Amino acid sequence: MSACSSTSDMESPNESPSFQASRIDRELIRLTQEGLPLCPHPYHKLGEQLGLSADEVMCRLQRMLDAGVIRRIAAVPNHYRLGYKFNGMTVWNVPDELISELGPRVGELRCVSHCYHRPRHLPHWPYNLFAMVHGRSQDEVDKHIQTIKDLLGEHNRGNEVLFSKRILKKTGLRLAAGG
Amino acid sequence: MSTPMPDAAMLPLHKELLDRFQRGFPLSSTPYLDIARELGVEEADVLDALRFLQEASVISRIGPVFNHKRAGSSTLAAMSVPEDELDYVAELVNAYKEVNHNYAREHHYNLWFVVTASDDLHLKRTLNEISDVAGYPILNLPMEKAYHIDLSFKLDWS
After folding, report:
1. Domain ranges of chain A
2. Which of residues A94 and A6 earns the better pLDDT score?
3. Which of A30, A111, A149, B51 has the most beta carbons within 10 angstroms of its beta carbon?
């Protein structure tokens, strides 16, 4: 770990262009999408598969964490299996000039797992704020939606909730080589 | 989809691992030992517990969670498809390796999928191609700003 130096050519998360993952980074990403090996030295094992030392594997992961390419290293829970079977994608139409103030307040709610500003497509799609809510019952989800409604108050100019009916595909990130 | 795992089937160590390690999994040569020390248990206990959670599909995996946006170019796409064509169109969409999530949702826009490509041009080409193949226009909703980046989710244990 001591051999790691955070590269200084990575600008702030929202300004910098996409991180240019090298071929080895991509290989590493691909391998870790299956999950880290459950053995005492998992990074050594990944290194063996890639022809790298464990230190280099950890350095590469640390660099990607620093660059924001990796958000976190985690035990990734399966919400469905934990009983959070009800998820609603709530979408809101809030004034553009207020979104940078309202967005973070919605995002920090306990019940919200993702919260994004996305573009409107008028006239078909007037919504600019997306918040995913999860619950163990429909009731719980309804309460979460009401919480967001209350928070936005008069700034809510219309909203909808899109419940998921089926998961049709769900895979880890795949980076296609080249463009 | 799998049925929920009853809380009763989970040991305190299982819950603790889920509560504590939805982020900050150690980057060290012995991560499981580090976790064990932090929780005051043996390394073998941690490995057993994680193996159990993984086999029971309570966790999908242990590992890095990538920021799609920064690992390449990505977007959320929506399509409005007649219900009786939904499965067929979903299959066409899913055939693209650039599509990593695809959900059917109850709405006029009933197909929602995430497309990730190596760069903007590749993304644009892929969206155009999917739209052509599927025969329906795509609502392209790229993330402009994330207000909740971490995605670690507080679980309520009943």
Report:
1. 1-76, 86-163
2. A94
3. A111
- Quick check: A60 contacting B, CB < 8 Å? no
CATH, domain range A86-163: 3.30.70.920
Q: What are B48-60's pLDDT values in tens digits? A: 999 999 999 899 8
A173·B116 Cβ contact <8 A: yes
Whether residue B112 sits in one domain with residue B47:
no
Nearest CA in chain A to B46: A38
A5: CB partners within 8 A, 6+ apart: none
Among A2-11, A16-25, A104-113, A149-158, name the most confident range. A149-158
Rounded Cα distance, B156 and A146, in Å: 19
| Pick among B7, B58, B66 to test the A interface (most A CBs inside 10 A) | B66
Check whether the bond before A123 is cis (ω within 30° of 0). Answer: yes
Q: What is the ipTM of this complex?
A: 0.75
- CATH number, domain A1-76: 1.10.10.10
One domain for residues B36 and B99: no
Report how far residue A19's alpha carbon sits from residue A17's, in angstroms, rounded to the nearest whole number.
6
Amino acid identity at A136: R
- % chain A with pLDDT above 90: 54
> Domain residues for B128?
68-141
